[in-house]
Amino acid sequence: MQSNSHEEGYDKVTWTTDVETHPPWLRFHLGISRWELYNRKDPNLAQLTHYLATQHILGSVQKKGGTQLKLLISFPNYGQALLKPMKQTRHAETDVNLFYFSDFERHNAEIAAFHLDRLLGFNRIPPVVGRLINVTTEIKEITTDRRLSKTFFTSPAGNVCFYGQCEYYCSVEHPVCGQPHMLEVSLATMLPDLTIAPRRSWRSPWRRSYSRTKLAQWEKDPAYCDTVKQTPPYNQGTRLVDLIDMAVLDFLMSNMDRHHYETFEQFGNNTFLLHLDNGRAFGRHSQDEPSILAPLQQCCRIRRSTFLRLRLLSLPDFRLSDIMRESLTQDPLSRVAPLLSEPHLSALDRRLAKVLQVVQTCQEKHDDVIYNDIEGHDQGPRSAVTA
Amino acid sequence: MQSNSHEEGYDKVTWTTDVETHPPWLRFHLGISRWELYNRKDPNLAQLTHYLATQHILGSVQKKGGTQLKLLISFPNYGQALLKPMKQTRHAETDVNLFYFSDFERHNAEIAAFHLDRLLGFNRIPPVVGRLINVTTEIKEITTDRRLSKTFFTSPAGNVCFYGQCEYYCSVEHPVCGQPHMLEVSLATMLPDLTIAPRRSWRSPWRRSYSRTKLAQWEKDPAYCDTVKQTPPYNQGTRLVDLIDMAVLDFLMSNMDRHHYETFEQFGNNTFLLHLDNGRAFGRHSQDEPSILAPLQQCCRIRRSTFLRLRLLSLPDFRLSDIMRESLTQDPLSRVAPLLSEPHLSALDRRLAKVLQVVQTCQEKHDDVIYNDIEGHDQGPRSAVTA
Lengths: 387, 387
Fold this sequence. Notes:
Two copies of one chain form a homodimer. In chain A, 31% of the residues lie in helices and 13% in strands. Chain A is α+β, with helices and mostly antiparallel strands. In chain A, strand 5 and strand 6 (160-162) form a beta hairpin. The first copy, chain A, is globular, with a radius of gyration of 21 Å. Chain A binds chain B through residues 96-100, 102, 153-157, 159, 161, 168-169, 172-173, 175, 177, 212-213, and chain B through 96-100, 102, 153-157, 159, 161, 168-169, 172-173, 175, 177, 212-213. Chains A, B: The active site is at 257. Chains A, B: It is found in: Golgi apparatus.
């Protein structure tokens, strides 16, 4: 992790100087900068995902925190990953009567979110890769977690299943099952340990109510952004447009579950926002959720770099759905089945057009919609966007 | 309820003498005999189901007992019915990794089980009818049940939903929802109150273990029936062949959840078995569950009347699937969608052939397979079977 402290502009790319003998997860940690988690040109990215996808699994225990089942996986050379299992068929749509806070987490959403965030030029999601694991030999037989191991069983169909212990969906009625042993999972690179790189958790100003009946303040007050704009840390620097970047990402993948975001403490307030925990994205392709765009719609502001990238991805030659489809084929699980079905890919294009429409509507009313974050940075890591 | 006490033969049909001014539910109660719940020729049957399907609903409260949500519905003239709501799309198959004790209850299974039991000539399931009810005006707005009413909410899709309080699937993750108000339900006629007609509950000797790991004794011991045959009440009368009738019914509809059965106490041990609670039937059409037939397979005994009826229903002109399809069209909900999909109907024919195959295999090894229950009863209520 680069401990520089200058307050603006992009950090110099330093991966070329990393010691090649370091394991890829450590090189990833060392490459984290103030403005992004990784540089998209860093060859270590491919090495890191290859490592997660192929290394021998040494240990599997339940990871605490959150409401749904996830495992912490250990690899040789102290590598670790966060595992989320496949819990429903790849293309199942979320039941229309389920609230966003009751929805399942999806392994393919974690994978697709990483790709989408990268293609948008954000680089704010830790690398995620898909893998087929053997539930018996890579979890059941090696786990030291008794609370986990006692939930294993063989299902009526002869599949090896488990459910773990957690708040939602950890019961025999909602098992995670191999076929009979092999299970699709997502593996997300772990961030540096909190003792080395403490993080701060921020409650999103556009957080939903997480209630069946109550509305959040931002849902009732069209002028809500005026208050946010005056409230630290949103009253200076890029924090507000960072939040809007995150809303654009979430709208494209229809993630309603962004209640908090995190930053690295050592970078203070002038730093990028981590887009962690995307398992509830990509739940429904047939509908869009305009309220996710509320920060953009209510604040009428967007980074120029983001706007240019979105415009580029709406052109026929660079269509977001095509670029996502292509990008996802690099994931090992794409050999099992496409990680996003065609209706989900089409939804991305449809939603992208809606984002651009909101920006245009803003521009018709306001002069200060485009926040120019790229003046003087045309050689920076996101320069390709502006070419 | 006919309080006769002779120990064999069919009771004389008495419905013609029932007072026509009695409400249909009361006439149903009065028509219950030692050997069957109703006479299939009784015109009151159609009046009873019409009553349940059309009468104004006066009250709706949760019904205690069991593990899943069900409601007790009140009608004018003191009629009552047990309501089970539609909880999954009509044709969804049970997940292969779910145990029989974790499966949802299905409203259409309750309806189809009543028809199947009647077509088999058993008449041991209280009449069940389907109905489209208005969740808002017929439950939410009239219930006096606070535990129920506080679980109502409007879903993200704008549907009126509730989940009640029970052991399984009573949570916001498993809502019962109208579209936006109308919900398919099954309504089963209530039996006479337990204070008037007390019932005895018997644990089935072929009860499953209700465990993820343990096997029941009958699953381990092929000679299990030898013990049962010597154990009262199975050592005399028709109790053993009654149990085998029930196994045939359950195998045909793939109901693995028959842990208990009931009888009316006043009829002692020489009486029919009530086939209550069939909501977990018809969960899977693509597979059969041979273990449900264990009582037949292990005891190698079957009523002659049942055997003849099964043989009749395997003939092209009387094919079970055709007769069930025809019978189910009489239910009001068949106007919404067929109550059993074609794969479920075909499964009935396939399973019927398997039952007859098991009988034949028995007959190749034993002489006493057919239990002659119809000698001298050719004019009785089930005479059509033997014609």
